[in-house]
Every structure is written in C-alpha cells, then in structure tokens.
Design brief:
The chain is mainly alpha-helical. Helix content is 61%, strand content 7%. A hairpin with a 2-residue loop joins strand 6 and strand 7.
C-alpha cells in the first residue's frame, strides 16, 4: 500500500492537495482555472498570426535580457584592440565596442544579436499582417474597438522600439538614422530646436543619446508594450474569440477546441516552430553586420543606407518630397521634411480610427462575433488594399537609390514614379479591388443558385448542349449565404407631416452619402434568396 493511501486512511489529505486547497482559499485559483482553461477557441490558420506576434515578443524579451548583460550604453571614446583585426586601432564608442565584443567574444552572442533583430522584424511584420486580417474580416467591430486600439498602439510602439534598438550599436548606419531623426525634429516649427536639444542633451550628437535610447528601449517602451499585450489578451478572453461563419456558429456561441489541453498543446508546439524558424533565419542570414559598417562619425554617411522596412515609408516620403522651403520673419520652414513627418502619422492614424469611422457611417451598434469574408465588404477591403498600396509605393521611394543601382534605372525616374504613384496607385487599387470583390460576390451568387460546375457536357433532346451542375453541400451553401445585406442609411424627410421644414446638418448629409457609397446598389451584389433558390431548383427558368 502506498504512502498516499495510508495518508488517506488516516483522514489526512496528501500534501499536494492541501497546498492546492491552501492556495485556492486565498487566491481563488481553482475557480478561475476551471472556467478559463476550458474556454473554447475556434480553429483557423489566420488566427495564428496573432500568436506569431506574441511568440516573437517573448523571444525579443528573452534575447534582449541576455544582450543587456554584455552591452555598455556609453558614448565614451575608446580604441579597439579586440579579435576583429580590421577594426584594431580604430577609435569608437564603448557602445560600438561592446557590440563587437558581443559578436566576436561572447559565446553565442552573435546568434543572440541576430535572433533579437530578426524577431523584432517579424514581430512588427506579424502585427501589421495580424491587424490587416482583423481589418479585412471586420473583427474590429463592437465590442472590440478598444482592443483594436491596443493593437494599433502596439504597432506604433513596436516601430519606435525597433528604431531605438537598432540605434544602440552606434554604428555608421544607425548613426545616420539618428541624424535623420534629428533633422526631422529640427523641421518642426517653433519647438523643433528645443526638442532636439532636450533629446540629445545639447548639440548633435552629444554624449547622452545612446544612454537615453538604452533606457527607453529596455525599460519604458517594453514595459508599456507588455502591459498592452496583457490587456489585449485579457480582452480576447473576455469578449470570446471571433469565428468565421459556418453551420452551428452564431453570434452567441463559439465552435472550436478547449484551451486545455488541445489549444495549449497546439500553441506550445507553434511557439517552438516560430522560435525554430527565427533561429534558422538568424543562423543563415546576416543582419546588421556592424563590423562591416564601422563606428559612427558625423562627417561620414554609409552607402546604401536603409532603415528597417517598417520605417521605409517615412524614409520614402522624405526622399521623394520636393525640397520646398518658406522663409517667414527670418525663420526657414523646411516643408520638404515637415510635410512628410505630418503625413506619416496621419497614414498610421487612419488605421487606428477606422473602426469608429465605420461605426459612425453604418450606425451599427450591435455586437459582432461572426467574421466577414473580405469579398462581402468590398468598400472596406478596397480601402485596406489602397492603404497597403500607398505604403508599398513609399517603400520603393525609401530605397530609390538601391532600385536605381540594382536595376540600372534613373533615380529621377524612380522618384517621379513614386511621387505620381502615391496619389494614383491607391485610387487604382481601390477601384480594382472593389470590382474584384463584386465579381466574387456574383460568382458566389451563381454557385448558390446553379450549383458547382462539374465539367460534364450534356446534350438535350432538342440538340442544345449544357454543362451539368451539381448542388453545393449544405455547409458551403451556408458559408456563401451567411453574410448580412446591409442597407445604406437614408435621410429623414426634410418636411415633416405637419409641413414644417427641418434643418439637415452637413454631418447627416455626409454620413448618408458615405453610407450609400459603402452599402449602395453599386457597392454590393444582392445575395441569393431562398425564394430564388427554390424557383430555380424546382425547374422554373432552368434547363
């Protein structure tokens, strides 16, 4: 007989149970775990995009802690005498020297640096793709507008965290980026010089910028982001997960697998998969080789200088903007830099406020837990593609010199192409995307009414050849007809039943026009009704 059985016979619970009862009586762990660990999550590949962001963030934190043990955020000048021969005898900052030491003397240091940098790129890229998935499927609608804002803030903070992070080695490339940022600050009217002096502790480059970036990079921004991640996950649990339309799925239930043990097992395996892919990329693809670039010197600029991809948009705006200047009251306003830095946050802000704009246009105050298929929201999908088009065009502008040298093109031609495409490209993308969505809606309607094409040709008694269609399965039929047919808002009559004319506000007129543009007759294809389906399947109006 085991000791556990003997303990039970004496009327005394095992130590493990007593400890569990002790903790549950003080923390309520059992009740919370019983409720939340059986929470159901739907299964779809696109839901993994958010997990890629979460796991990349965890990897960034772990590798960042390791790197802080060896990095010295100081701009004091030293002479290098380390193992990397080409740099021996070169004067550099302690920050750059410690980066070289991490790369060549710390065991696993270079791999950790590369994992940290690649994970940061994947983290920001994963957030952008994840937000686009949420945008195109309408997962930002009530009650998830606040969670959308949390994700938007995470994206913005991730961009700034990445910028402060790759600026820390104090190499020639990152120093050029800091110089670019200082030029941006100086272009701000009235307060630009003050902001630059406060940030740099004096004239550029000063001796304080790297220590300040270090504190911001490892303490301030990660702390805020960690809080936002926790709040984001809490709201995901609280609101329950969204799901795509399907048999048995409604706005009031969730069809899927429980968190424990199924979903946690999948999530754990997926974490190691993400970690393995990032580690493999870091092991085979060099990124930010500071030893080949050299330490920063204010009188030098590295050739082919490019920021990380998520800041290429801002770089492109500045590069293709004409060098306009205005002299007012003895002061010069550099519009060639100031206008781009105004456009950049506006383009980002368009993502953050869109859920509230759409809610205002539609007047829809209901809760939504069933996702839209992008084709069933043509105007929203077209706006998203237009935004992405503008972003990609400016990425080309941010690397106009590399496009010119690699493809043997004129840099002036590339610059003018970007200037024109920034305004024309999104409009063309909007029109084309909307027409594609409407075409897909028509195809879905035909499939519902006439079934799936089988490729079998049949000859009728009177000699006509037709293709045989077979009815769609019920689950596919449900998917194609589950979406709502929204109706545009209409203005109330300007004259009431008593003949009294009321004043219509401009905001009401604008709202009605936008609603008509989003849900009018030309903006969506009526889905097949049950009456049309029964009429066709009964033989009326059909071969």
């Amino acid at each position: 007989m085991s000791n556990q059985d003997n303990t039970r016979r004496r009327g005394k619970a095992p130590a493990g149970e007593r400890f569990a009862d002790y903790m549950d009586g003080r923390l309520g762990i059992y009740g919370a775990a019983k409720k939340n660990l059986r929470k159901v999550f739907p299964d779809h590949w696109s839901f993994m995009l958010g997990e890629v962001c979460l796991y990349s963030f965890v990897i960034i934190i772990l590798t960042g802690v390791y790197l802080t043990l060896f990095f010295h955020p100081s701009m004091n000048e030293v002479v290098y005498h380390g193992p990397y021969v080409p740099m021996q005898g070169v004067r550099m900052s302690e920050a750059f020297k410690s980066t070289l030491d991490i790369s060549f003397e710390v065991r696993g240091g270079l791999l950790m640096r590369q994992i940290h940098h690649w994970a940061a790129l994947i983290f920001v890229g994963g957030m952008l793709v994840h937000m686009m998935r949420v945008f195109f499927t309408g997962a930002f609608r009530k009650p998830r507008e606040i969670n959308w804002l949390f994700g938007f803030l995470l994206l913005v903070l991730g961009i700034f965290t990445g910028f402060t992070g790759y600026s820390l080695p104090d190499d020639l490339l990152s120093g050029t980026g800091i110089r670019f940022m200082q030029g941006v600050l100086l272009s701000i009217p009235l307060v630009g010089t003050y902001l630059s002096m406060f940030l740099f502790g004096g004239e550029f480059p000063g001796t304080d910028i790297i220590p300040r970036f270090y504190s911001i990079h490892i303490l301030l921004l990660p702390g805020i982001m960690l809080g936002l991640v926790v709040a984001h996950l809490i709201l995901v649990f609280y609101h329950k997960h969204t799901q795509f339309a399907g048999p048995g799925r409604t706005e009031k239930n969730v069809v899927g697998m429980p968190l424990m043990p199924v979903y946690m097992a999948k999530a754990g395996g997926f974490f190691f998969l993400v970690f393995g892919v990032i580690a493999f990329i870091a092991a085979v693809a060099t990124i930010n080789p500071v030893w080949a670039i050299g330490p920063y010197r204010p009188d030098q600029v590295s050739t082919g200088a490019q920021p990380d991809w998520y800041l290429g948009f801002a770089e492109g705006l500045v590069r293709v903007m004409p060098g306009w200047e205005i002299n007012l009251w003895g002061h010069t306003l550099v519009l060639g830099v100031f206008i781009p830095i105004v456009i950049f946050p506006i383009v980002l802000l368009a993502i953050g406020v869109y859920p509230f704009i759409e809610s205002w246009i539609t007047g829809d105050k209901r809760e939504h837990h069933i996702l839209d298929r992008p084709r069933n929201a043509p105007t929203r999908t077209a706006f998203g593609v237009a935004w992405i088009t503008a972003y990609l065009v400016m990425l080309v502008g941010g690397g106009n010199d590399l496009w010119a040298t690699h493809f043997h093109m004129s840099i002036n031609a590339i610059t003018w192409f970007v200037r024109i495409a920034f305004f024309v490209g999104p409009v063309i993308a909007f029109i084309v995307t909307r027409r594609i969505c409407l075409g897909l809606q028509r195809r879905d309607r035909d499939k519902v009414l006439h079934g799936r094409e089988t490729g079998i040709i049949k000859r009728l008694p009177h000699g006509e050849f037709i293709e045989v269609h077979e009815p769609l399965p019920q689950d596919q039929m449900h998917t194609l007809t589950a979406h709502e047919q929204h109706k545009p808002l209409e203005l109330a009559p300007e004259v009431d039943e008593n003949g009294v004319r009321r004043k219509v506000k401009r905001s009401e007129k604008l709202r009605a026009r936008l609603s008509k543009g989003m849900y009018g007759e030309d903006a969506q294809i009526p889905k097949a009704t049950a009456e049309e389906y029964h009429e066709i399947t009964s033989g009326h109006g059909h071969h």
